[in-house]
Design goal:
The structure is a single chain. Helix 2 (27-34) packs across helix 4 and helix 3 (37-43) crosses helix 4. The chain has helices at 6-23, 27-34, 37-43, 50-60, and strands at residues 66-73, 77-84, 89-97, 100-108. The chain is an alpha+beta fold and 109 residues long. Helices cover 40% and strands 31% of the residues. It has four helices and four strands. It is globular and about 40 Å long. It has one domain: Nuclear Transport Factor 2, Chain: A.
Length: 109
C-alpha cells in the first residue's frame, strides 16, 4: 500500500480492511462499515441479513487476500483493480459517503 498516497491510499486501505475483516470472519464489520447500504441490501436473501449471508460465504473460504494493484479516484467514486490470492483480477467500485469510502461492487475484471 506504500505505493499509494492521499485518497488513493484511503481507497486501498478500505480494500485492506475488507481482507482483514474477511480473514477474521467479521461479517458484521464488512456489512456495516465497508459496504454501501445498497450492496448490503443486495446481499440479503429472504429473511437472512447481509451479515448472515457473509458469515456463510466466509466460512466456505480458505483465504481472503486481496492485493490492490491500481486505484483511480474521482470526487465521489473510485475504482480499484485488485487480485485475489489465486491471482484472479477483480475490480472494486467504491463511492464516497461523507469522509469515508464504501464498497459498492466487486466484479470480475
Amino acid at each position: 500500500m506504500d505505493e499509494f498516497s492521499g485518497e488513493e491510499r484511503r481507497v486501498a486501505q478500505v480494500i485492506a480492511d475488507l481482507g482483514t475483516a474477511a480473514d477474521d470472519a467479521d461479517a458484521a464489520q464488512i456489512c456495516s462499515a465497508l459496504l454501501t447500504a445498497q450492496l448490503a441490501d443486495r446481499l440479503k436473501a429472504g429473511r437472512r441479513t447481509c451479515t448472515q449471508e457473509l458469515e456463510d460465504a466466509l466460512a466456505d473460504a480458505d483465504e481472503f487476500t486481496l492485493t490492490t494493484r491500481e486505484v483511480a479516484v474521482t470526487q465521489t467514486s473510485a475504482t480499484a483493480r485488485v487480485e485475489n490470492s489465486e491471482g484472479r483480477p477483480r475490480t472494486v467500485d467504491l463511492v464516497r459517503q461523507g469522509e469515508d469510502w464504501r464498497i459498492a461492487a466487486i466484479r470480475p475484471s
